[in-house]
Amino acid sequence: MKPFSYARPADVAEAVRTVATEPGAVFLGGGTNLVDHLKLGVARPELVVDVRRLTSRAVVDLEDGGLRIGAAVTNAELAADRRVRERYPVLAQALLSGATGQLRNMATTGGNPLQRTRCVYFQDVTTACNKREPGSGCTAVGGSTRNHAILGTPGVLPDPTAAETCIATHPSDMAVALAALDALVHVQGPAGERLVPFPELHRLPDDDPSRDTVLEHGELITAIDLPPLAAGARSAYRKVRDRASYAFALVSVAAVVPGDGEIRLALGGVAHKPWRARRAEEILRGAPLTEHAVRGAMEAELTAAQPQPGVDGGNGFKIPLVQRTVVATVRDLALEA
Amino acid sequence: MPELLDPRAIGTDLARRDGAAKVCGTATYAFETPVERPAFAHIVQATVPLGRITAVDTSAVDALDGVLAVLTAGNAERLAWTDDRELAVLQDDEVAFRGQPVGVVIAETSELARQAADLLRFTYDEREHDSELTVDHPGLYKPDKVNAGFPTDTAEGDVAGAMATAHATVEQTYATAMYHNNPLEPHATTALWDAEAEVPLTLWDSTQGVHPARSTVAKIFGLERERIRVVCPYVGGGFGSKGTPHANLVLAAMAARALPGRPVRLALTRQQMFFLAGYRTPTIQRMQVAADRTGRLQAIAIDVVEQTSRIKEFAEQTGVPTRMMYASPSRRTTHRVAALDVPVPSWMRAPGECPGMFGPEVALDELAEALEMDPVELRIRNEPEKDPESGKPWSSRNLVACLREGAERFGWADRPPAGHRDGDWLVGTGVASSVYPTYRQASSTATVRFEAGRYAVEIGAADLGTGAWTVLPQIAADALDVPVDDVEVRIGDTRYPRASVAGGSSGTNTWGSAIVVAAGAFRDKFGGDPADGDEVSGDVDQAERDSDHAAYAFGAQFTEVRVHADTGELRVPRLYGVFAAGRIVNPRTARSQLIGGMTMGLSMALHENSVWDPRVGQVVNHDLAEYHISVNADVADVQAHWIDEHDPWVNVMGSKGIGEIGITGTAAAVVNAVHRATGIRVRDLPVTLDKVLAGLP
Predict the structure, then answer these.
(1) Which of A127, A296, B4, B647 sits CB 3.0–4.6 Å from B396 for a disulfide?
(2) Are A292 and A228 contained in the same domain?
(3) Signal peptide location in the record (chain B) (predicted)?
């Protein structure tokens, strides 16, 4: 626990300016992750800038039939929104599968996608972690890997001492749904506003595991747009976890069938970011969504999957599990039709 | 045959006397004891698993305003008794396990104490550690005895011979995980040292026994017991982890003595609970079971491998239930322990019986399968007429009645066939037995006094949330032959007479016996019309004590498990337990205890697992987000029932302990049901979905 200053700027512009000019500053939304990190010493900011009252807390209809979600809309409010439940069930289901009622009442649309990995070594300041302390190494490799990545990793048993090694997963359920929906993120930065397609918001560790997203320091999410879906579109979120509630996904699947011969699949719990299964999507484009076809497409998607061994038995089970979960989710969607 | 107390208040479902205060938030727990100007202490933990501290740099802390003291081995007081190395904190530079206390910081606020703790810099000379339990660990040894004083090994007959010739045999290895007690209220103390006072040291501590805690602290600090007061009206759960003092209590007292006149609060963080509050050892259980064609056991053997810490031995008595549970001419039980560079294991709900009813009760299911026999019937066929271990008759044993009633309530006879599928779910049913010994502690004293027209009963007992505040008045009322409203029981303070620890499910049996003795003495001395201030004491050792019978509570648990055919997710829609635990003093609090135990057993079956990383030397999932316990959504229809049991031998109330039996056997029942659903036999806990994927369609 390190003392910090607290600021509540008058508007988004001031908040962005404040954080952009202070390297030790962070934004505070619902605080459901950051406050834990303050206590644990995982986050040690000089300045906490509270933006919760600065952005919109409304969900508004867009002219094209989509929805714009203000960054301050809580997860609970968003999950309960009738338009979301009817038009984007994948998002409502993802939100309701996350955390607990109390946390969903606090967590915000802008903050949820920016929550950090629950890798136990990231959260323990007495162990090495490249994400928390760049260059210190990765204790997770060969350790407790049940919740870790199988896709987008450098390989089986990457070098734990290398500065780029990180096998963490992104924990958000909401983000997986937004990736499958091809949502658009409104980002306000010191140089103005830009739009980031949601599937490009998060990044792989590459050469810098400390960065979870493409956002620059000082950039703030102000809203997220959901593009319109045709009337006959279907979507669903399926989360598989170790207990019935209040657990992060071992694997999860967001499936969207827009109705134009396409399917969009995003996977949670398998990578450093919500994983769009582009290869499987490509194979399935225009094809009937039979169990056989989906299984085959997922096999192709998972050829690059790298199971991690671990002191807890490792995470190799995720490969068959995610395949089975995708097949079941698409099957159930097809039954809905 | 002794006569039991005539029950009037006993057996009624009196509401918890402390219930309203707890619900309204007015019941004060140790950390929130109202005191003037409290200071806050925070424990600093070693970050190496084995080694020696070579330097401590406090310079960053010295610059902080509001830090009152920093205690390390370099300046902490020398303790009078250091034989117990878990409790001999800050006495030398040695680090025996990662997370061991190496300092304590005391400051004006808890935030400041934590900040200062972060700024302390320890330099270590680290040595290679050994913290991984394996079945063939080279350091395995035979302890002199196992927990509760049981012999380490027993043997009779010829197990090997029976295994070679019997009609059916099972030889398998089972494993239970490492588990951490996680009561909602962490270990916490408010401590005050005032050298001038008649009682200089006061400890408001969350404990399962104010008197045992006081005795230990007195020994450690070289103080007379009378110079210490320990107070604990309420406990937010203990499960054994508050049965013996841990390092936090010694550090709280030390911190208070470093700041005379200033009350000091010290609570473990949730993360620290995984290093300092005890835990259940992982166990590896090699089982051998042999039976004849009719299902009668010819041999049963359990060879247990488990761990303790290198600085203090705690050998869980995992093999003990196998010594008495079923009839068998040949039998073997052994315990081998590896002393590792790990935190100190200790009591956790039903030490011995909890892990020790896993391997055997799954092995019996495997035997039933090999014999193509109903597992309920197999257990009934192996009912022993007398205790196989001691040869004594049972004080009462109604396992068979529990199995039969449980089967009836559950609908066992009509259970679906193996591999039954209902929509997306594979459905299985399972059964296992439960057992827990009936203990009564050797010493406890109660005082009965007539005060302003009511009877005050004082005994330094503890209520962990189990119901002692409520059931002791019921017992006292019947013993005094007055309405329960005329009795006030006072507990949780060393100002009241000495009482035993709330452990081994012995509280009601022990304290109730002392109260009945005191009540009888009171009536003998003062009759039915006492004067104000009339007072008498009674000891449990004056109560009748039977040593000619073997006394245990028994039970049977039935469960329905559903396994998702696509993902392997596990759900337990039904868990029914039927118990035979003597006379139930209060059905309301008893049901809570039994359901609580069963839920904890369910949690052990499906979720709980302290993930040990032997490279780092610690539990890595050390918080309640990552260490999963069953949540409400996992706990569906859990029912606890009991059969009326009249046992004149156990004590004058006819009560057996009920705090621990509920957790025994549950995990085996779940594993057995998973097997029936999927065909997959999971022999290592917890049963997680990855372990059943291979059995899915």
Answers:
(1) B647
(2) yes
(3) none
